[in-house]
Design a protein that fits this description.
Blueprint: H1 3-9, H2 23-35, E1 45-50, H3 53-60, H4 68-71, E2 74-81, H5 86-100, H6 108-118, H7 123-147, E3 151-152, H8 160-166, E4 174-183, H9 202-205
Amino acid sequence: MSLIEALNWRYATKKMNGQAVPQEKVDQILEAARLAPSSSGLQPFKVIVITDPALKQTLRAHSFDQSQIVDASHVLVFAAWDNYTEERIDHAFNLMNSERGLPAEATADYVARLKSMYLSREAQVNFEHAARQAYISFGTAIAEAALLKVDATPMEGFDNAKYDEILKLNEQGLKSVTVLPLGYRDTENDWLVGLKKVRQPKSSFLIEK
């Protein structure tokens, strides 16, 4: 199945049937998220993988009672760094250089430029930048799930502050950005299943110069 075919198959599943997604498919989706591009390769976010039924039930209360949170096999929470710090930037580039067999001097000038730009900005500006990187990974995970015929529901409809508190993200210097339940559609009870996918036509979507 091509990516275009997979994207035509997928939709924002409103009701899941509780069936477990095989771990090998979850692992593929998570690997796609891990391999997604990010600015300067910093990967300024984490993915929290939730399977515990009690925890999912707790989170549902802070997700506008959306049933996908509890009916999903796995719930992925994408959480971005709350700020860029010297330590975080150094850690990322130390890893890169180590894996590539390069000395620290190879990236020293680039790292210095990054620090001069990021460390002078307000934390909120840096968090918003990190959140945009998380969204790239989020979109990649959605695409991989579609290729594997695993349903995924992109969600921003949740109380970020409550999620951060319940998952203790603040203690890790993280803030929740978006949520992706993974599972399988309940074809008997999902009002959206089977409806035609509607997107803007190319004539209005594209601006060609």
